[in-house]
Write a sequence for this structure.
């Protein structure tokens, strides 16, 4: 029902009915990038809420934080995983820079970013399984509950972002990935990557 | 402009454009139900909101009758049990704030007006827009479903403080409270999508020539409200997820017995809750700012001041939320700071009121129906704002907290916003929405029949609050000091006034539907107004404008001495004499 | 004349915000604790009290920071393209 726009330049769009040939609309940035940025701002506040709640709950815990009879969180292993995720973010940034000059050469770094992201999520899944086996559950203490809540919420975002990236990878292989879409997805992936070290620091230590 | 990001924009909505070009008849379903057209989505929000308003109003009728005549069998409802009373009050508040004020003021007016006033043909993300409405509808259905499940709807107040809300042993509504949380969370997701759409549209889709300061105030206000909403809702969603887990999978986030903290919820809730009141207030002020210049035939006084005050309000609104917890046991250092900030936030609001009054000064005022609503908004809102200052002072709030004084305060703010503001906007833009004029006489009857009883309801409630009457009590019979005949008479008076006010709403409903087919044809620009929506046909067709407008000036150029006509539409070039 | 008015207004805003900041600082720094009043028996321990204060500050300033960053970004991207317009707009 709405009219499509066709581009006649980097940031100038006219309406395909040609109703507006004289003057043009200016875009601050591609719609997808702005939309994603706004969404990311709301998401940052969501995690800010979690972090604040976590900080307060730490001080009201009944038997210390973390509770003495509960398993410790795997700080060292997760440090490796954190590095993997950061590398993934760097790979995607590199892929985007290459993409602007030569679309085909972006394929390899894009794939690396995608695979490192998948590694991060899978690694966490394994970590969760062993923690559950050792007795850290959502009901065992607020410590456990917050761990699964915050890290799980981040993991959900990572999975969603990875699905988008995987779909875009297919488009990239077909040479059909648009720069606006790539830039939007990149913003979201940077959010997932950038949020993690903060959560790691707040939750694991 | 040097762009790092170049976009060969893949035409969005290709299939739709295709349809459009062939002008082939769309089915009822794709035209009105699964539409991506911003105007239809706006209407969907509006009608859903109005439907919910009827339910919320009916709930108010039922519990007010119980308060005035304890134990009576309320006509149309029956006996109101204590549990039902709690659920009615809770869901009245929830509905009116989340399912009436938000959808109608922001989503309905935002969707309808933003693309029209910016001179573009739709939102930048039409599909997201449709999804937003669908999620909103789902949320409404979930909420309605929560009333009919076993043990009835949630009754722990619209603020849902734990432990009452977290544990089924206390709330006695295991299913109702869970559905309530889910409904609210879904609703937030819907508005987040809508808000992102509004903001991006304003940034990217303005008509050629429309600069920052040429954007009509109401668009600014809706966008600012969306930004405030977006930035404040995160912590509440975090809290809602935690609450949901407490209810369903047995975590103890808010349970002190297990190391949780119930006050934490209050912080997360009010961190959103107070900005939320400005989220609904700003669009209402925006509507008033559109109406007053038109019917006073004057330029809006100090356009930029209005916007800067609105920005200031937005910034300050993040600094005041703890005034809701003055007696929840917060750090006294915090209480002091929040007292000062709360009193401070009245300053920009007062300034906006003054700006509107200054716009009236020396104007040629026509007391049309939209103008009456706009003027009454100022008069009534000031009462709400001023009583807020008493509550904001932590010393007096210790006495007032949780009494009917608070209740009357926020109804004097909220009623102007959600009812007066909505009626102002609806009567003003009705000709644009439906192509016909509303009946003025019926409109005036409805106006007076709403405003007078409104004051008759809530002034007694101020008095009752001052006398110490607590909120959220089913029957005062068991509280001898609150059950005196004088107090009971005031309760009866308020309830009777409410019934009168509700009956007068039938006049509006009649006028609304009667005018759809019988009203005078409106024409493009019935009020000789300047903003771009009046350039489009009434009602606007697909794509809104026959000729996409270009903007040459700000939106409020009325009665310029150097022109023959007393208005100067934004899209008329300077050299051409008139349109 | 207009310039004078503008400067006066700016001065007034500066003075007002300075005074407000001062007032906030003063009332924030010297609370009277009254044990009989529910406002003051609050936190379970000192640590908890600090956690509340810190997260209050964090949650309050973060949104402003986010919007500020967004505005700067938008400004940077639009700065060089806003041209002055025909003189009829005063
Ligand atoms: C002029 C500025 C305002 C000030 C200074 C102010 C102050 C306050 C204060 C201090 C309270 C807490 C009272 C208590 O619970 O003891 C309060 C409650 C409330 N205010 Fe306002 N307010 C203002 C404007 C508004 C506006 C514009 C709205 C609505 C759109 C609003 C809606 C509410 C609501 C809904 C509550 C009660 C919430 C509840 O406990 O259920 N206020 N206000
Ligand atoms: Cu408030």
């Amino acid at each position: 029902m709405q009219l499509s726009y066709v581009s006649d330049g980097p940031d100038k769009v006219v309406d395909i009915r040609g109703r507006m040939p004289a003057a043009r609309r200016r875009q601050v940035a591609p719609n997808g990038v702005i939309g994603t940025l706004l969404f990311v701002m709301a998401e940052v506040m969501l995690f800010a809420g979690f972090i604040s709640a976590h900080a307060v709950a730490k001080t009201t815990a009944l038997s210390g934080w973390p509770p003495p009879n509960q398993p410790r969180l795997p700080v060292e292993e997760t440090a490796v995983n954190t590095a993997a995720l950061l590398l993934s973010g760097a790979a995607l940034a590199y892929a985007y820079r290459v993409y602007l000059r030569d679309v085909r050469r972006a394929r390899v770094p894009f794939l690396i970013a995608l695979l490192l992201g998948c590694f991060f999520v899978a690694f966490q899944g394994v970590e969760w399984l062993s923690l559950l086996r050792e007795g850290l559950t959502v009901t065992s203490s607020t410590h456990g509950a917050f761990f699964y809540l915050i890290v799980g919420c981040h993991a959900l975002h990572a999975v969603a972002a990875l699905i988008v990236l995987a779909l875009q990878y297919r488009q990239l292989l077909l040479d059909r990935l648009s720069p606006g879409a790539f830039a939007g997805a990149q913003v979201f992936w940077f959010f997932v990557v950038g949020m993690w070290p903060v959560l790691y620091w707040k939750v694991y230590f | 402009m040097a762009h790092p990001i170049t976009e060969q924009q893949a035409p969005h909505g290709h299939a739709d454009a295709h349809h459009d070009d062939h002008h082939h008849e769309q089915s009822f379903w794709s035209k009105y139900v699964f539409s991506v057209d911003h105007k239809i989505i706006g209407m969907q929000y509006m009608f859903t909101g109005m439907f919910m308003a009827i339910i919320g109003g009916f709930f108010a009728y039922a519990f007010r009758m119980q308060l005035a005549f304890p134990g009576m069998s309320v006509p149309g409802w029956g006996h109101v049990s204590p549990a039902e009373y709690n659920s009615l009050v809770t869901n009245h508040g929830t509905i009116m704030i989340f399912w009436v004020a938000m959808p109608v003021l922001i989503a309905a007016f935002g969707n309808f007006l933003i693309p029209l006033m910016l001179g573009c043909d739709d939102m930048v993300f039409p599909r997201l827009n449709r999804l937003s409405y669908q999620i909103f509808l789902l949320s409404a259905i979930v909420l309605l479903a929560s009333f009919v499940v076993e043990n009835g709807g949630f009754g722990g107040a619209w603020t849902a403080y734990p432990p009452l809300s977290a544990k089924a042993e206390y709330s006695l509504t295991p299913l109702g409270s869970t559905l309530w949380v889910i409904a609210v969370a879904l609703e937030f997701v819907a508005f987040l999508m809508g808000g992102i759409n509004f903001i991006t549209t304003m940034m990217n889709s303005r008509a050629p020539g429309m600069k920052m300061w040429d954007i009509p105030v109401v668009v600014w206000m809706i966008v600012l409200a969306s930004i405030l909403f977006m930035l404040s809702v995160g912590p509440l969603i975090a809290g809602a997820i935690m609450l949901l887990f407490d209810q369903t999978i047995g975590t103890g986030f808010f349970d002190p017995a297990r190391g949780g903290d119930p006050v934490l919820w209050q912080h997360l809730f009010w961190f959103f809750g107070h900005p939320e009141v400005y989220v609904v207030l700003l669009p209402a002020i925006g509507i008033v700012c559109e109406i007053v210049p038109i019917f006073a035939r004057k330029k809006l006084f100090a356009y930029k001041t209005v916007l800067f005050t609105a920005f200031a309000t937005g910034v300050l609104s993040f600094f005041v939320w703890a005034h809701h917890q003055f007696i929840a046991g917060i750090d006294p250092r915090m209480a002091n700071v929040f007292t000062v900030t709360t009193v401070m936030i009245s300053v920009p609001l007062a300034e906006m009121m003054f700006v509107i009054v200054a716009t009236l000064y020396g104007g040629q005022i026509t007391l049309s129906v939209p103008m009456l609503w706009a003027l009454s908004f100022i008069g009534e809102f000031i009462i709400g704002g001023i009583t807020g200052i008493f509550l904001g002072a932590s010393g007096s709030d210790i006495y007032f907290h949780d009494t009917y004084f608070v209740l009357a305060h926020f109804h004097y703010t909220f009623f102007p916003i959600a009812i007066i503001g909505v009626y102002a906007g609806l009567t003003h833009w009705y000709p644009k929405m439906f192509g016909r004029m509303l009946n003025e006489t019926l409109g005036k009857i409805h106006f007076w029949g709403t405003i007078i009883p409104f004051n008759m309801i809530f002034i007694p409630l101020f008095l009752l609050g001052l006398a110490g009457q607590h909120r959220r009590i089913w029957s005062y019979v068991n509280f001898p000091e609150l059950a005196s005949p004088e107090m009971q008479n005031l309760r009866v008076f308020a309830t009777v006034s409410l019934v009168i006010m509700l009956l007068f709403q039938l006049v509006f409903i009649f006028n609304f539907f009667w005018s759809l087919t019988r009203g005078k044809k409106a024409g493009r620009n019935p009020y000789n107004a300047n903003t771009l929506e009046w350039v489009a046909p009434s009602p606007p067709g697909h794509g809104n404008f026959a000729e996409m407008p270009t903007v040459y000036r700000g939106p409020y150029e009325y009665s310029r001495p150097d022109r023959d006509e007393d208005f100067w539409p934004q899209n008329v070039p300077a050299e051409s004499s008139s349109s | 004349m207009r310039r004078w008015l503008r400067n006066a207004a700016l001065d007034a805003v500066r003075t007002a915000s300075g005074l407000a900041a001062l007032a906030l600082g003063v009332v924030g720094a010297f609370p009277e604790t009254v044990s009989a009043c529910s406002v003051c028996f609050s936190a379970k321990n000192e640590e908890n009290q600090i956690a509340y204060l810190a997260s209050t500050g964090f949650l309050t300033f973060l949104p402003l920071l986010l919007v500020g960053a967004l505005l700067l970004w938008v400004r940077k991207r639009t700065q060089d393209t806003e041209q002055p317009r025909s003189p009829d707009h005063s």
About this structure: Residues 86-90 of chain C have pLDDT under 50 and may be disordered.
